[in-house]
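anyone seen this seq b4? input:
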Amino acid sequence: MLNARSTADEWMDEADATEPAFRGALRDLERINRITLAYRPTLQWLDRLVRETGATELSVLDVGAGGGDMLRAVHRWAARRGVRVRLTGLDRSPWSASFAQAAGTPAEWITQDLFDLDPARRFDAVICSLFAHHLPDPVLVRFLRWLEARAERGWMICDLHRHPIPWAAVWAGVRLFRMDPMVIHDSTVSIARGFVRADWERVLAKAGVRAEVRWALPFRWTVSAIRDAG
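predicted toks r here
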């Protein structure tokens, strides 16, 4: 069943998801992100971006920002590195902004579809963690081109590797820790909607976008591009 990307729906993507259900899912997703070291690949890429471009301040957009936990991790990273950051979260869910604000996320928040974002908006860095698997291939091709147009210094996607081992581990883990029903349903669907290297090579070629594809632990892919806009 994992030979190709799944097209099964995730409950989180449904327009009628209620605020209590969404809030419970975001809370448990943050737990999963901490347990699985989900912030590390993005923060390591930001280290590399700063090192290669010499940037001392960055405007950072997080696409599919959810509850804002990645942006809070970026804020802590910036404080440690002495980098000044202006953070923006983008998520189409109306419940994301209130959750992120309640959690103290130090960021501007935009609630809309990413393709509806003002064409004039540009950011030094655009990051996207565990969001791309929500997009079918034709939309993902469009998103890659969108990233190229929006990011002045670089962009980075981090997403799931489609494989039986993480599928089985997540299936067991979300039940063992009695996580939110939305997370229980969506977790294995997310992995089934994930990627192998050939998937990334195919969509990048279709988009006409040059990027580096790297393996990241545990069971992740990073897809990124860095340019010196200074």
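The chain has a mean pLDDT of 94. Residues 40-162+195-226 form a domain with the Rossmann fold fold (CATH 3.40.50.150). kinda curious what u guys think
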